[in-house]
Design goal:
By secondary structure, this protein is of the alpha+beta class. It is 16% helix and 39% strand. It contains 1 helix and 4 strands; from the N terminus they run E-E-E-E-H. It has one helix at 61-77, and strands at 4-14, 17-27, 34-44, 53-60. It has a 4-stranded antiparallel β-sheet with strand order 1-2-3-4, covered by helices on one side.
């Protein structure tokens, strides 16, 4: 299900990247208990594109305190997104409907 009790603890912008530290809870499917989690999110829009690219690193609260916070910080700090090189190749649409009609 969707996360509950979502809180943005910290939000910073560094060199065109947005860094967020977020805490939230999710519901365990087996025990129906709420499990607190913390996540680091980094997002950017590479130059020349309109698309956002994100990386999320998260762990439950007990693992976060045991060192997952350091590993997650290392991971998001290494994030880099650049557009792919331009090409003169033509893109051909591929029929993935298996013969089904798509009416909107």
């Amino acid at each position: 299900g969707p996360p509950t009790d979502v809180k943005v603890k910290k939000s910073t912008m560094v060199d065109g990247n947005r860094f967020l530290e977020v805490s939230f809870s999710n519901l365990s499917q087996s025990t129906n208990a709420e499990i607190p989690r913390t996540a680091l999110v980094v997002a950017t829009i590479p130059k020349g594109t309109d698309n956002a690219v994100m990386l999320v690193a998260s762990a439950n609260a007990s693992r976060w305190k045991k060192g997952a916070n350091v590993a997650s910080k290392t991971i998001v700090d290494s994030f880099s997104a650049i557009p792919s090189p331009k090409t003169s190749m033509k893109l051909r649409a591929k029929d993935r409907t298996n013969g089904a009609s798509i009416d909107f």
